[in-house]
Specification:
The structure holds 2 protein chains of 2 kinds. Chain A is an alpha+beta fold. Chain A has 12 helices and 9 strands. Helix content of chain A is about 50%, strand content about 15%. In chain B, strands 1-4-5-8 form a 4-stranded mixed beta sheet, with helices on one face. A 4-stranded antiparallel beta sheet of chain B has the order 2-3-7-6, with no helix packed on it. Chain B has a two-stranded antiparallel ribbon with strand order 9-10. The chains are: A alpha+beta, B alpha+beta.
């Protein structure tokens, strides 16, 4: 299999760069560069801009609003997107449930949801994990009991990112308690304002609110909100998790981090301040090598055809490496901050500029928050230990 | 197709026992394997068309070398078909290209590159090996060390200082004034230390003048560095396969070692390292076609990181074999020794890191190695 970067690919990349430069508001890019999650308003505004351009869902099938780009183009787009400090569109809606609905949803369900997802009108969150079902997802207990034209949901989800501002949650729920664990699950879309649904925030060690618990107490939803067939959702979940793995290489974010590290180091050099360690340049070069290698691995996975077992192994490898690299770039940034990383900053400090506690550099609040939250990257999206098991099984199990 | 034919050759004619017999000289040394490789078109495969080549390039070399890495091939194919050939091409001497390349392509010549000084160094400043003008040509004086393929080569490409730069000369291995001391490295590959004393060579033996010699050698070194990394990919992959097979059949505590999660995860980590290495070889193959700065960045990133990956993956492979991995009769330790040699050839990891750092800030592409223009890189699926 041959991969070729043609003249038109080079031109495409420059087009993407020019579009982002012209249309991404500087304030949003600046916020992203500092390491803060965009507000829902900013994200929605930016999503609208991409939607107008036809770029809101590049990997969806063309008939549902995708761009029909080649793997190389998708890859180049992701690189330029990251370098421009553009915020991600909503991951659960656009990268996770959207492709599942395209592939497995009824035409009626597609008509109801794909349009609003595509233009950024509705926001989804992912209801998979539960207190008793983390890595062992099949052990989930939330039940969806059929009652005429409805399901009644009872149970609890946890670690639900952005549930506090989502419109919909797509849940894995048990519709057949008698079947084997993987064989009795359905995927159901539930509106967040449904009676009986409660959201409780979880504060993480970055002192931020990203994730939540979501409680279902007799929540009624139309059976028409089920995606695909009853009891078949384990295979949809596997499809969804496969989609997630190239994304979880975080190439765009990693390139942004490398840029930021170089900017921070340059500022220190100009200010005649010492770099944090004599091996700083070597550490940064080693990060370059591993990010470059990861980018090429993403490209190889995107371009691969056939041989599912090796592909599964390579995709899992992307996730493991991406997560480690996020922590390593964060560590280098933290080392550049030194004692400036110590104060317990609040969200208000993000925009304060100068005058921060401890004489801290203005980049400190964002860097620290991002580093602390990046500790989760080895845990979410299928923990790295699960990924290693997938790699072994894919490559070597008979 | 090329890959399958090389793999079949290794399986049928260069199994581990055969290889060991050749090392022990249980089989008399000769060019039998070399001629067979030439007949299969492998010397010609990566050579440009006009010189008897098949018009391929570094990607074809990488495919062949990856398969060689699986089989721990000792024939000096990398030395002749990549290092020497690419140095000759970069010298832009049509005379030598016409004289040497077709003979390399058809298997009748082996050519080595003698560039490390007698103490094993490749100095940035003037070489201690010198070329002095005499009537009709030059007199070469000096010593070269660890010349790959130097034990059996027909010709040596020799670097020597001249007029404040480095020139390259093509010298016959059996010419007057050339003496060789052959020996084996720890991976059993054959090399030679060379001494040039009162070695008179005609004017036309100059492959490359001092204005271009350093550049031509650097191009040859960069191609060879990527080549040996491609070999290491094959070595790592084969090493992992051997380890998995071993773990599945080795039983302790009432079960196969492969049932233990720690072993499975260790193997997964080795695969992850291998995949990183494979991607950097692809980037370097793409980088070989770009201008000097991008090429140097891509090659140095590759050589530094791939040799590190090979040392750890193949070292872990020895560990995962338990005591068996430490025995000389068993193949896996030989893969580890090859990784140790490879780290030191065509620039060590430290030297490549130094070069990479010296290029900091000189390329605008986020360092991804294929921005400068159209390029192609051939890869297996995944």
């Amino acid at each position: 299999m041959e991969f070729e970067l043609s003249e038109s690919d080079v031109a495409f990349r420059l087009d993407v760069r020019a579009f982002l430069h012209a249309h991404l508001p500087a304030e949003i890019a600046g916020h992203q560069r500092q390491g803060y999650q965009p507000t829902r308003e900013d994200q929605q505004a930016w999503h609208r801009v991409l939607f107008e351009k036809g770029w809101a869902a590049p990997e969806w099938p063309v008939e549902h609003g995708g761009t029909g780009w080649t793997p190389v183009q998708r890859f180049l787009y992701e690189i330029e997107y990251g370098l421009a400090d553009a915020p991600d569109v909503s991951v659960p809606g656009m990268h996770l449930v959207g492709p599942v609905i395209c592939r497995f949803g009824s035409s009626e369900l597609q008509a109801r949801f794909l349009g609003p997802l595509l233009c950024g009108d509705i926001y989804c969150c992912q209801g998979f994990s539960e207190p008793e079902a983390g890595s062992d997802l099949a052990n989930l207990r939330t039940r969806a009991i059929r009652d005429g034209d409805h399901y009644i949901l009872d149970g609890q989800k946890t670690w639900t990112s952005e549930a506090h501002f989502a419109d919909w949650i797509f849940c894995l729920a048990r519709t057949d308690a008698a079947a084997k664990p993987q064989a009795g699950l359905s995927m159901i879309l539930v509106p967040m304002d449904a009676p009986g649904l409660t959201v409780r925030p979880i504060t993480t060690i970055d002192d931020c609110h990203h994730v939540n618990e979501v409680f279902f107490d007799g929540v009624r939803v139309p059976a028409a909100n089920r995606i695909g067939e009853e009891n078949r959702a384990w295979s949809y979940a596997k499809f969804l998790l496969d989609q997630e793995r190239t994304y979880n290489a975080h190439i765009g974010r990693l390139l942004r981090h490398l840029q930021r590290i170089r900017t921070m180091a340059q500022e220190r050099r100009i200010g005649r301040q010492p770099l944090p360690a004599p091996d700083f340049d070597t550490r940064l070069a080693r990060l370059d090598f591993d990010v470059q290698a990861l980018a090429w691995s993403v490209l190889r996975v995107l371009c691969a055809e056939g041989d599912d077992r090796r592909l599964a192994a390579a995709a899992s490898a992307l996730k493991v490496r991406g997560s480690h690299l996020l922590m390593r770039v964060g560590e280098l940034e933290m080392d550049l901050l030194g004692t400036h990383a110590l104060p317990r900053f609040s969200h208000h400090d993000a925009d304060r500029g100068d005058g921060l506690a401890g004489g801290a550099h203005r980049s400190a609040p964002g860097v620290v928050a991002q580093f602390l939250y990046s500790r989760a990257s080895t845990i979410f999206g299928g923990s790295n230990d699960i990924q290693r098991g997938i790699i072994w099984n894919a490559l070597f199990r008979d | 197709m090329l890959r399958e034919s090389v793999r079949r050759f290794i399986d049928e004619r260069y199994g581990f026992e055969t290889r060991q017999a050749r090392i022990r000289r249980a089989v008399p040394p000769g060019r039998d394997l070399w001629r067979q490789m030439a007949e299969l078109g492998w010397m010609a495969a990566p050579l440009p068309d006009p010189f008897g080549g098949l018009g391929g390039g570094p990607i074809d070399s990488a495919i062949i070398l990856e398969e060689f890495g699986r089989g721990l091939m000792l024939e000096p194919w990398l030395a002749t078909a990549v290092f020497a050939t690419r140095t000759i091409l970069a010298s832009q001497s049509v005379l030598h290209q016409q004289r040497l390349l077709p003979a390399i392509a058809d298997g009748s010549l082996q050519v080595a590159v003698a560039y490390l000084e007698g103490d094993g160094s490749c100095p940035a400043g003037p070489l201690r090996t010198t070329a002095t003008r005499i009537a009709g040509g030059y007199r070469l004086e000096g010593e070269k060390a660890v010349v790959l393929g130097g034990a059996t080569a027909d010709f040596h490409i020799v670097t020597a200082s001249l007029d404040g730069g480095n020139a390259l000369f093509v010298v016959g291995a059996r010419d007057t004034g050339v003496s060789a001391r052959p020996y084996r490295l720890i991976d059993d590959s054959e090399v030679a230390d060379l001494r040039f004393h009162d070695c008179a060579v005609p004017t036309e033996s100059m492959l490359c003048g001092p204005d271009r010699g350093r550049y031509a050698l650097e191009v040859g070194l960069d191609h060879a560095a990527v080549g040996i990394c491609a070999e290491l990919i094959g070595s790592m992959e084969c090493g992992l396969e051997m380890t998995a097979a071993y773990l599945k059949q080795r039983r302790q505590f009432g079960r196969a070692l492969s049932d233990f999660q720690v072993m499975q995860h260790r193997m997964a980590d080795s695969f992850i390292e291998l995949d990183t290495a494979r991607s950097l070889v692809m980037q370097a193959l793409s980088g070989l076609e770009l201008e000097a700065t991008s090429r140097q960045r891509a090659v140095s990133a590759c050589k530094y990181r791939v040799s590190e990956a090979a040392r750890s993956v193949l070292g872990d492979a020895v560990h995962n074999h338990g005591g068996m991995g430490m025995t000389i009769e068993y193949p896996i330790g030989h893969y580890f020794r090859r990784a140790l040699v490879a780290e030191r050839l065509f620039g060590s990891g430290a030297q490549h890191m130094q070069r990479y750092l010296s290029l900091e800030g000189q390329s605008e592409d986020g360092g991804l190695g294929f921005w400068a223009g159209p390029s192609r890189a051939l890869c297996r699926p995944v």
